[in-house]
Amino acid sequence: MRHLYVLIALMATLVTALMMALVTGTASAQTAPSPDQAKAKFAEMDLNHDDALSLDEWKAAGRRERGFKMIDADGDGKVTIAELLAARAKYGRGG
Predict the structure, then answer these.
(1) Rounded CA gap, 80 and 45, in Å?
(2) Residue 53 in contact with residue 70, Cβ under 8 Å?
């Protein structure tokens, strides 16, 4: 049973690393973008300039839906810069 918990923890770590690579567009071995760089990328992705990313905007930037759902903390169907930076901090990518 203990091996199962270890396996689950390893899988969770892997999923987290993959999610953050999707979020930031960087490989985990690279240095994470600074918060200012993340904000600039966010602004570039925000096509309608409403200070939030819709799923369509997210996917148009080449991101996967799964990452969007993980970052959309309040489940309102939009990712704000605050949610993005919180996810970066939570998953160990700075912020």
Answers:
(1) 11
(2) no
